[in-house]
Amino acid sequence: MRPSEQTNPVQFQHGTPPAPNSGPVTVNPITPVKPDKLLRIDDVMELTKLGKSSIYAMPGFPARVRLSSRCVRWKESLVLAWIASRSAVGEEQ
What pTM was estimated for this model as a whole? Predict the structure, then answer.
């Protein structure tokens, strides 16, 4: 064998060598989920067109996330889902 044809043995660390690739690499078609945005009361009021007291008192409205004793937010995905569900209720009538 000529020196250019020689191959160096592959050295593996920490256990067994990796399994050989049995086929083409596929990419997961699922897109990663973005973290949910937290909305302030003003943002929720703008989205829902409801007043502050209505948002706090309305049964079935998405629960707020308490960040501290004086700070609450609402998950954007839950508020948008609530709005969509209310739209569906209006279409049924």
Answer: 0.59
Domain extent for 64: 35-93
**Contact yes or no for 75/34 (Cβ under 8 A):** no
Identify whether 1 is part of a domain. no
DSSP single-letter state for residue 74: E
3-state DSSP helix/strand/coil % of the chain, to nearest 5: 35, 10, 50
Taking the CB of residue 86, how many other CB atoms lie within 10 A of it?
13
Decide if 64 contacts 72 (C-beta within 8 A). Answer: yes
The pLDDT averaged over each successive group of 10 residues in the chain (93 residues) is: 59 62 66 83 96 95 95 96 83 62
